[in-house]
Amino acid sequence: MRALNLKIRYLDHSGFSVETASNQLIFDYYRGTVKLGDKPVYVFSSHSHPDHYNSVILDWQKEKQNIHYIFSSDIEVSQPNSSITIMSPYEATKLGDLNIKTFGSTDQGVSFLLESEGVRIFHAGDLNWWYWWGDTEEGIAQATADFKAEIAKIKGEQIDLAFFPVDPRLEHNYGLGAEYFIQEIKPRFLIPMHFWGNQEAISKFAGEMLERPTKIITLTSPGQTIAL
Fold this sequence. Notes:
It is a single chain. By secondary structure, this protein is of the alpha/beta class. It contains three helices and 14 strands.
């Protein structure tokens, strides 16, 4: 199995820095320490929720010239400029050597699929099976239909690495969306996110997925790094 040649640093919550041979990709930063290197930087924000977007990222332009932002269309930017690309669901663009596609979300904004140097990375944002235990039957049925319809649009895409919510607030349904995503999409690797610091939930999910074709990578503490 070929190496992906990625260096991944967990920032916090759903935030990650991913270094390829040529680029640095930053996803859904809202807090944590970011180290900007010499490579071109691409900053992705999937939606405007404050645990996924912090406008401080725009200040990085002051110290970094070769930086570009890719924002969901629900994010309001007070001073748009040429370094910012706005995307809605089901759009595609090319920036540098990155091919970027967006899919929808079952909450707000978009999910991202990008290809860099032959490696395909998916960041789900808040795309998840939001099966809340206390919801009405109608609400649960709608959440299920919406999620499965969105995954059907992604099905057929080859994905090397996926970042996907595993949210303990959903109680015993905490890993339902990620498990379905693995079943339908079969990414090579999946890194759980959006787990609100609950390391036990992530370890439990990884144990439950041992027989699946996707390898679960558990990054639980901000600042952790791993090479794939």
